[in-house]
Amino acid sequence: MSKEANKIVKVREVSATKSSTLSTYIDRTVETLKFSISTIKFPKELSGTILTTLILLVLGLLLILGNLSNTLNQQTSLIKQFYTNTESTVDYQHHVILSDYIKTIGNIVLADNSQTKLEKSAMIRAMTQATLQELDPESRRYVVMFLYDINLLKTSSKKQLPLFFGASLTNAKLQNLDLRYANFQGADLTGADLRGTDLRGANLENAILKHACYNNLTLFNQGFAPIAVGMKEVLNSRECFSARLHRIDYKNYGN
Q: What is each CA distance from 23 to 59, 146, 241, in whole angstroms?
């Protein structure tokens, strides 16, 4: 084999090992077209025109595909940015709602006015239930903690309607809280995370506990059967069912 032939073989070997880029793809496409056209017998005066037209068509098509790819990438980026901004906005709204609620309830409790205890209780109950509807599972946790700490969540008298009666605490993240003697009578605790929570003495009468999570550290009243009310035992190393449900239906905030 001559030196010229060896050079040609080496050049082809090097070319075969390179990554396929858009420019090399175009070059190969053009070379293929040239070879294909050379095998077809056209009048000499038409060969150049046909070759040029086909090359321009291929280049135009590749340019269109490239623009479409760029457009799709830009749209994907905009969609991701939109959802990121939306989620940040929702988190901020939850923070504002929670802050306003805590401030308002605090003022009602501390206010020395002519309102009776029952009137204050009714106002707090209405505001609490309306606020819980607007909050996400994490924020609902802080509502429960706040009310428990200011002694508004303890078991109430029979004349007073329970604060959480009919309230939505679905998917609430209440794990590892001390909620002894808390009154959850009639509350909707569907999907709530109660792993490690102390519920001894708590009133769970008529509470909805379907799919609520518990573990071996959750403390219940003696004789309480969590499985009988639809609760699920979930290890700490695994994700609570409520968290998965919340991601699937995020915009409903667990309602």
A: 11, 64, 51
DSSP 178: B
8 Cβ neighbours under 8 A, 6+ residues apart: none
pTM comes to 0.62
Residue carrying the six token digits 């794990």: 175
| Contacts of the segment 59-62: beta carbons below 8 A, 24+ positions apart | 59/26, 62/22, 62/25, 62/26, 62/29
| Contact between 175 and 219 (Cβ < 8 Å) | no
- Three-state SS string over 66-124 comes to HHHHHHHHHHHHHHHHHHHHHHHHHHHHHHHHHHHHHHHHHHHHHCCCCCCHHHHHHHH
CB burial readout 86-114, b (16+ within 10 A) else e: eeeeeeeebeebbeebbeebeebeeeeee
SS3 193: strand
* Distance separating alpha carbons of residues 194 and 224, to the nearest angstrom: 14
What is the chain's mean pLDDT, rounded? Answer: 77
The residue ranking higher by pLDDT, 246 or 91, is 91
pLDDT in tens, 126-139: 999 999 999 999 99
Q: How far is CA 106 from the centre of its chain?
A: 32
CA angle 202, 205, 206 (to 5 degrees): 140
Residues in the chain: 255
